[in-house]
Amino acid sequence: MLTIHLHRSLFKPSLLRRTTLSAFFFLAFSSASYAQFQIRLASPPGSLVMPINGKKIVRFVVATPDDMRQAKLTVSVFPYDSNGKLMPAALTTYQKAISDIPGGKAIDVSIAVPRSGLFRVDATFKSPDGETLDKTATTLAVVTKRDEVGPSDFGVVTHFAQGGTPPPSVLLPLVKQAGFSWIRDELYWEAIERTPGRFNFPARFDTYLAACAQFGISPLVVLDYGNPVAYPALFSQSNFPQSPEARARFARYVDAVVARYGRTVKHWEVWNEPDFGKINYPTYLALLKDTFGAIKQRSPDASVISCGGGGSGGGPGGDCIVGLMKDGGLNDQDGFSVHPYMPPNTPERGYRATGAPIDFVSIPTVWPYLKRLTADNVKADGRPLQIWVTELGWPVNPKDPGQDEATQASNLVRTYLLSRRYGTVKVVFWYDFVDDGTDVNNIEHNFGLLHHDLTPKPAFVAASVLSSTVGKRNWAKALVDAESVKAYQYGTDDPVVVGWTTDGKESTASLHLPAGRYVQRDWQGVDTPVTITAQSFDWRVGPMPRYLIADRQ
Length: 553
Description:
Immunoglobulin-like, 10 helices, 3 domains, hydrolase activity, hydrolyzing O-glycosyl compounds, 28% strand, 8-stranded parallel beta barrel, 27 strands
């Protein structure tokens, strides 16, 4: 049944209209006589991620000419299947005569969905003779409400420091709902010290870090970049602080930042992706030493992370940290970071490396290699360096076969499962949380778990289900570890088995489990009862991981 509530529209069209075909589409009117027909989404940004319990409201705004009041609004809800593909048949459809809707007003459509998961909601204007006049679509996520932050190794990249993004009060609850416990963001030097020696902190910096404390999210903050605004002479040739004077000015900025935010921020990353083709390791190490000293003087218990994902291919071969250690920098840091991007390859297989100490850039090769590297190079205080992956992600890329939204979701889940399997990395930060734009042909616009207007992708739902299902369970053992099929157990007292394939096809994982009742859970959180009558159980799995949990009821 369609529940209608009327409100005056207060929403800015620029925030509500998408051009991305995967979530929103806007068709030209069939003729000039229909040019006044318009329908657009008017739900507040971020409101289409909803808990399982309660009403599911989607808001639209309609505009119609007076002579076409017999047209109809049709709203249809389509589910996604267990492999992340949109299903062709609608779950339910609602209709309303336009004559009953005052033009220019917002319409709240109360939608009934039978389960958790991701749904596409299509809204269509049709003339009395059935011709489509205008249409729009959105996605709706129904997920288990989270009261706590996610596991300690789950992080995501945000862009609050850049400004122009939805406020932290909107985004951070969604970060928490997706199951992350960390964000990675920045505090730009040139935004803080625009006049030499005068530090004025933009309100957006205070706001996002205060919101992190409010929502229990841990921030990893990047200290960057050069400051040609306050010091044009020092940065006329390079944006990196290469001279002793430039480094001293940078250290003074660091001191001011830690003095202001040191109680909230306990983890600092020195620069983002330094270009070692333009600067050398001794130059970076000199800045690292000055920064390390400035931070530790103000906040002795803080962690200082080097490299910033710099190095060949983002540093998965360890060239940055090896270079710093060769120059005597082992003890001037608490850890280092890499950015081992692998698209369009899978996290299990990655791509072949050349001229590197590893044959492939993949999680099964990079994670153990870096673990051995740190074990062989312990700091003077007896502690190994922390290993951070501060950027890693897969975009939705229509130009690359197989890089669709379902593939992005499966790669996200498999990345975190594999990372925990190797027990190497402190935190993996998915890049990034929200699409940076709406151009479907621009890869940089399409890394997010949410579309640019904050409507959810499959990856958002998959992340939320992963974090709530596996939680903090450590990797226990491999039940199946073939090249194309994986089945891993996480936890021992209350184990969760996760299975998937690596070649994009469905296959069978033969498991030996105690007989009894189990629940199979898919990426959307949809549970199916399974009874195992013998110790050998043939489990059908695909590229989107599935969970097998003993039924304790």
